[in-house]
Request: fold
Amino acid sequence: MAKLILLRHLQSQWNLENRFTGWTDIPLSKQGIESAKEVAGKLAGFEIDKVYTSPLIRNKETVSLILENLGKEHLPIVIDKALDERNYGKLQGLNKDQVKAKYGEEQVRLWRRSWEEAPPKGESLKDVFNRAVPFYKKHIEKDLKQGLNVLVVASHNSLRAIIKHIEKISNQEIINLEITTGELRKYDFAKI
Reply:
């Protein structure tokens, strides 16, 4: 039975600084790099045949560190922008607490987690879903159907979109889904 493993990238420098990152290409923090061995340990014993990630440096660095710690640097890696984080538009680079103080906590929560509401000049989760899920169906699901075990390393909202699809989470309930940096989600493909 094929396995799908979803991994949110390790902590980036802007995660550490509590800033909206979005499409800004920010590397991992020192803490993120240091956590790689522990996160890789949670994957020990899992056979991985193929890896998918986005071109954002925090995702590629996470893949590199995880595979190095697992001794699996030889695995095929597919890199595609469909798995990028949401575009946070005018919020990119801003401190999240300062944005909450200006616009209110509930408004910021809607921009970050709701289905249809996008931050100013940015993407909604629905927008991310409409690029990430077709890619998932065309490529990742195809590999799973062929019996390959797939690791997807991506950003918070591209993973939330894929999980929404897999777990059939409603548009209203998706606001409650949070995935921490370095968090793993594992699925048996036959049960998806």
